[in-house]
Amino acid sequence: MDNTDTYLLNFEGYYLVRFTANTDLLKNLDDFEIRDNDVFIVTYPKSGTVWAQQILSSIYFEGHRNRTEMVETLDRVPFLEYNLLIPLQIIYIYRNPKNILVSYFHFSNMMAGLQAAEDIEDFMKMFFDGKVTGSLWFDHIRGWYEHRHDFNILSMMYEEMKKDLRSSVLKISSFLERQLNEEDVEAVMKQATFQNTKFDPQENYEQILKHDLGRTDEGSFLCKGTIGDWKHHLTVEQNERFDRIFQRKMKDFPLKFIWDLNEE
C-alpha cells in the first residue's frame, strides 16, 4: 500500500481519498457478506452517482418517493469506494468524459481532502495520468465493459438518462423487477429532478461535505450536469488534445457517447 501521496491512497492499484479511506475496512472486504437482493451502483467519480442513488431509492422505497420517510439517501444507498465485491445486480452508469473532467476539476477545488489544481490544464494532466480518486477513467470503463458478461449488469449512459428520464426509470425498474404504476413513475421522476435533489438536505450531502470532507468554499455539491457543458471550459486546443487521446485509447470501444445536447 502506497503511503507517500498526501491526498491519494493507493490500495492494490486503485486510488482512494486518503482523508476518508478506512484501511482496516479495505483489508477485510473479502469477508463482506453480499445478500442475494443487493444492488450495486457503479460509476466513475462525477458520473451521476448521487442522482442514481436517488432514483434507486425512490424506486425501492415508497416512503422515499412520497417523502413520508425522512431517511438520508446516503443511509439507504451507502458509498463503497472499492471494486472488490461481486454483487448479483449492478447498474453501471457512464458519462461523457469531457464533462467528467470539468465537473471533477471544480469538485476537487472545492474539497480540502482532494488535491486542488491550479487550472483545468493542470487537472487534465492529473486526469489523464490517473492520479485522481477513482484512478484512470479509461481503465474504469474498459474494465467494467470487458467483464460485463461476468455480472448481471445494466449499463446506462448518463446523457441518455438526462434526455429521457422516464424511459430510464422504467428500464431500471424492469431490471430490478420492481413494478411501478404511472403514479409511482411520476413520483420517482419528480424526486430525481435537479431542483429537488439540489435543495433537499437528505440528498445533496452538503452537511457531509462541510463537516466530514473539509469543504473549502460555498460552491454547490450538485451541479446541473448539463450535456455539453465542457464547451464552456475547455479551449479549442485542450478539446483537440482530449479528442486525440480519447481516439487513441478508445478507438475500438463499442459504447457510444453523447458529446452535445443536440446529439442523438
From TrEMBL:
Q: Which key words tag this protein in UniProt?
A: Transferase
Q: What is this protein called?
A: Sulfotransferase
- Tell me the ranges covered by the Sulfotransferase domain, including all copies: 36-82, 88-253
Q: Does the keyword Endoplasmic reticulum apply?
A: no
Tell me a Gene Ontology molecular-function term this record carries.
Answer: sulfotransferase activity
* Catalyzed chemical reaction(s): 4-ethylphenol + 3'-phosphoadenylyl sulfate = 4-ethylphenyl sulfate + adenosine 3',5'-bisphosphate + H(+)
Q: Which residues form a coiled coil?
A: none
Q: Give a yes or no for keyword Plastid in this entry.
A: no
**The enzyme's E.C. designation:** 2.8.2.-
